[in-house]
Amino acid sequence: MEAKRCGNVYKLKTAGDEVCHVSTTSGKEPWSVVHTRLGHIPFKRYEQLLTMADGVPRIADAPSDHVCTGCCMDKIREDNFSRSPEKTVKSAGVLDLIHSDVMGPMQTKPPGGCTYAVTFIDDFSRHVTVYFMKKRAEVLEKFKMFKADMENATGRKIKRIRSDNGGEYTGRIFKEYLSKQGNRHEKTVSYTPQ
């Protein structure tokens, strides 16, 4: 076997095999086993398969009362937790709403020793700014830098910042700074990407 390098990708040439390998079954498996083996196929699709291919075994037990836990879990949909109109409306302009979160500590230490990062994402433009930090306590300092850079670049003021309830955002000093600057702080639930 040989692979050719094309840029950063190795292309591997293989011989195609047109034979389909299928294991045989006794035909006595219950519907739950067949359903799982065929990728959680609905029974109506299985009935269609019976008419499309030769040798597909008929299932003895009818699946009228079969409840598949995997299929049930797959159909569960999680709603957004926010029903407040002010939080669901997209911002009307740049810097109307900034999303922020802290990541870290990173497992691999970079040369500068910064094991944390803070992100600031403008809701309107989706512009992302990332600052690296040595400590979580640097969030306010990085926010001040972000605020100055973005407000000078756009001529607009930050209206709201949305973050989780992390201590770096809910501390007294951060709250006082936002209050003095006229920035409203919206908090979301931790570990929820909404």
TrEMBL record:
An individual GO BP term: DNA integration
PROSITE patterns to which the protein is assigned, alphabetical: INTEGRASE (PS50994)
Coiled-coil boundaries: none
Domain Integrase catalytic: 81-194
Gene Ontology terms for molecular function: nucleic acid binding
Record's protein name: Integrase catalytic domain-containing protein
Record organism: Phytophthora rubi
